[in-house]
Amino acid sequence: MKMTMKDIAKEANVSTATVSHVINGTKHISEEKHNRIMEVIRKYNYIPNSTAKNLRKQSTKTAGLIVSSFPDSFVTEMIYGAEKRAREMGYNLLLINTNENSSYEKETINLLHAKMVDGIILAPTASGASYLNSFTDDNFPIVLVNRDDPSLKNIPKVTGDNYQTGFDSATHLLKHGHEKIGIIYAVSNVSTTVHRIEGYKDALKKYNLPFNDSYIEQGHATVEGGAEAVKSLLTREKDISALFILNDLMTIGAISKMKELSLRIPKDIALMGFGDFASANIIDPPVTNIVLPPETIGKTAFDVLLSKINNPEYNKHIELPPTLITRKSCGC
Amino acid sequence: MKMTMKDIAKEANVSTATVSHVINGTKHISEEKHNRIMEVIRKYNYIPNSTAKNLRKQSTKTAGLIVSSFPDSFVTEMIYGAEKRAREMGYNLLLINTNENSSYEKETINLLHAKMVDGIILAPTASGASYLNSFTDDNFPIVLVNRDDPSLKNIPKVTGDNYQTGFDSATHLLKHGHEKIGIIYAVSNVSTTVHRIEGYKDALKKYNLPFNDSYIEQGHATVEGGAEAVKSLLTREKDISALFILNDLMTIGAISKMKELSLRIPKDIALMGFGDFASANIIDPPVTNIVLPPETIGKTAFDVLLSKINNPEYNKHIELPPTLITRKSCGC
DNA sequence: CCTTTTTAGTTAATCGATTTACTTAACTTG
DNA sequence: CAAGTTAAGTAAATCGATTAACTAAAAAGG
After folding, report:
1. Which of A113, A197, B73, B235 is 20 to 30 A (C-alpha) from B181?
2. What is the pLDDT of residues B53-92, one digit of tens each?
3. Smallest CA–C1' separation from A4, nucleotide
4. Mean predicted confidence (pLDDT) in B245-249
5. Interchain CB distance below 8 Å, A47 and B283
6. pLDDT digits (tens, 9 = 90+) for A98-107
C-alpha cells in the first residue's frame, strides 16, 4: 500500500513536521519519538515521495544528459563516465539522444527545464546553440561537453583538445615523410571536426606544406559511410599517402574498403584513426589511434555541472589532452 | 524570469483554472479568453512546471532504464532502441547502470519508485530479483529486459531467445565436424548465459555427444578477460577444436591472444562470437557471429512497458530469435 | 521565585500545477 | 414565461512533502 508522510505521522501519533525532521535530521527530536517514528517507517517500508519533495525544495537531484550522436563508442563511454559520477554524487541522469536534430535539442532543453532538472550536460548539435543564452541568463546550469560553441560565453565547457589532436596526428604523419594527408570526417560545423582540421592545417604550415581542401572528405558516421568516403577520396586524389579518420566506425569501414581495393596498409596508404575502440589492436593491421579520454570527459562534465550548480559564476573551459597510441597502420 | 500559472492568470485576468483548461484543452473556453491567455503564455514563453503537474497527476512521463553492464555494445544498442522509442512516445528515460551490483539495483528501484517514474525497464543483475514482487504486487510497472528471471511470474519480459542462440551456434559447429566445442562466457547465473549453455548441451545431445563441463570457461567481460580466458581454457583442454564466445569484447581479446599463441583461426580453432560488433567483418579473420537484435529488444521493452502501464494484467514474455552471420572464423 | 532562554513539537503556509464542485448567465423548450 | 439545460468560468481542495512561525513546557540565570 502506498504510504504518505501523513499516514506515518498518524500511526506514530505525531505531526508530519516531526516525521520530516526525523527523516532529514533537521531538528532534534526526542529519543522516544524518534524511535517510534523510525519503527513505523520501517514497518511500512516508507520512502518519501520525491516529487513532492522536489516541488517544495525546487531541486530534483536529477540532471539531463543530452547527446547528439548515440550510439557511438566515444559518446557511450562519455555517458558511462557521467552516469557513474552522477550516481556517486547522489544524482540521476536523464539520457536524451537528439540524433543531431537541433530543433529536438531545443525542445528537449525546454522540457528538462520544466521537469526541473538541476542542470544539463549538453553535447550540442552542429547548428549554433545561442538560444541557450536565455537559459544561462536565468541561471539555469548548463555545461557544454565534447563539442564547443565558441559563441557561448557564460557557460562552462568540458572538451577534448581537438586542435592538439589534429596537430599531433598530422605532425606524426608528417614526421614520417607523408606530405599528402587525407582527412575523413563525419560531422560538419562542430568544434571537434573544425579544431582537428585547424590543428592539421597548422601542422602542415609548420612543415611549409600547402593545405589542399580536396584532401578533406565527409561521410556518414557509419562503417558503410567510412567505406564510401575512402573510396571517393582515394579515387579522386590518387597521390594521398596517408589518411586520418576522425571516427571509429568510419575507420573500420575504410580499412574494409581499402582491403577490397587491394590497398595495403600502411605500405600503400598509412592510416591513423581517432578513438581507442576495442578492436583496434587486432584489426589487420592494428590501428594507430589518437585518443581523447571519453570517460574522463563525461565524469568531468558532471563535476563541472555540480560546480556550476553551486556557483553560477563558474565558467571554466576544461580541455583534456590527446594521447597517441602507435600501432602498425601508420607504418611509423 | 520564472513564470507560474498564477502569474499568467493574473496577467490575463482569469483564474488559474482557466489557464490550465486552455493549456490542456480540458474545457471549452471562449475564443476571446483563449487568445488572451495564449498571448500571455507566448509573451513570457511560459512552460508549465512538470513537477507540480506530476505531483498532481501522479505520473511523470518518465521511465527508468536500469542496466547492469554498461558500456557493452549490446546493452548500448538496447539503450538506443529504448530511448528512441521512449522519445517517440513522449517519455524520458532515466538511465542507471548498476554495474552488476544487486544491492545497488534494489536501492535504485526504491529511488525511482519514490521519484514516481511511470515504470521501469530492468536488466537485472545475477542475483535473484524476487524482491521485485513487492513492487509488482503494488502494480508498479516493471519489465524485465535481456535477462530473464524465471522465478518472477507477474512481470512482462523481453529477451532474446538465448536457448536457440546456443543451440543454433553449437549445431552450426557440430554440423561441420567439431565435437569438442569450448564456451567462454562472462556472467554466471544469468539467463542469457544459462540458456545459451542449455541450448549448446541439447545440440550435443542431438548429436549423441557428451557434455564436458570443463569446456566451459568464465572470464571478465573485457578484451583482457577474453584473452586470459582463452589462454586458460586452451592450455587446459588441448583437444578443443572450436570456440563459442558469448561476449564481443572477449571475442576480440580471444582472437588477439590466439594470434599471440600462433593459433590459426579457423584452421587450428574455429571460432564463433556473439553479437554483431562493427569490426567483426574486418578483423582477421572476419568473425562468424550469432546475433540477437539489441535495438529491437530495447524498443520492444519500452512498448511492453507502455502496455504494462496501461494494463496491469499484461505479462507477456517476448522472445526474439537469433540470426547467424557466417564469416570466415568458423571455417564453415 | 520570577524572568529569560532553550528545547521539543505543532500548525499552517508553501511549492505549482489539476480538477471537482459550484455559481452565474444565457439559452431551450413545452 | 417558468423550468430545465447548457455553457463559461472560478474558488478551493488536492497531490505529498518542507519549513517558517508559533506555542508550551522545561531549564537556566539572576
Report:
1. B73
2. 999 999 999 999 999 988 888 999 999 999 999 999 999 9
3. D16
4. 94
5. no
6. 999 999 999 9
CATH number listed for the domain at residues A5-48: 1.10.260.40
pLDDT in tens, A167-186: 999 999 999 999 999 999 99
Domain B5-48 and domain B60-160+294-321, same fold? Reply is no
pLDDT at A262 over 90: yes
Beta-carbon separation of B49 and A114 below 8 A: yes
Q: Are B79 and B296 in contact (CB under 8 A)?
A: no
Proximity of residue B14 CB to strand D below 7 A: yes
In angstroms, the Cα distances linking A237 to A217, A234, B66 are 11, 5, 48
pLDDT number for residue B276: 84
Q: In chain B, which residue's Cα lies nearest the Cα of A94? A: B94
Residues with CB under 7 A from strand C: A 13-18, 21, 27-30, 32-33, 52, 55-56, 58; B 2-6, 16-17, 20-21, 23-24, 26, 48-49, 51-53, 55-57
Nearest-neighbour CA in chain A from B297: distance (Å) = 15
pLDDT of residue B304: 98
- Any idea which fold A60-160+294-321 has? Rossmann fold (3.40.50)
Q: How many other C-beta atoms can be found within 10 angstroms of the C-beta atom of residue A42?
A: 9
Q: What are the residues whose beta carbons fall under 8 Å from the beta carbon of B103, sequence distance 6 or more?
A: none
- Calculate the angstrom distance between C1' of D18 and CA of B286: 61
Q: Which nucleotides of D are covered by protein (CB under 7 A)?
A: 7-12, 14-21
With a CB cutoff of 8 Å and minimum separation 6, the contacts of A30 are none
Per domain, the residue ranges of chain B are: 5-48, 60-160+294-321, 162-291
Give which of A300, A274, A323 is closest to A144, Cα–Cα: A300
Helix, strand or coil for residue A237? coil
Tell me the one-letter amino acid at A185.
Y
Kindly determine whether the C-beta of residue A299 is less than 7 Å away from any atom of nucleic acid strand D.
no
Percent of chain A predicted with pLDDT > 90: 89
Distance between CA atoms of residues A330 and A285, nearest Å: 9
- The answer to whether B171 touches B196, Cβ cutoff 8 Å, is no
> Does residue A6 reach within 7 angstroms of strand D, measured from its CB?
yes
Give residue A1's pLDDT band: very low, low, confident or very high (50, 70, 90). Answer: confident
The predicted model gives B177-190 an average pLDDT of 95
DSSP class of residue B64? E
Fold entry, domain B162-291: Rossmann fold (3.40.50)
* Backbone region of residue A7 per phi and psi (left: phi > 0; alpha: psi in -120 to 50; beta: other values): alpha
Whether the predicted pLDDT of B10 surpasses 90: yes
Whether the CB of A61 is less than 7 Å away from nucleic strand D comes out as no
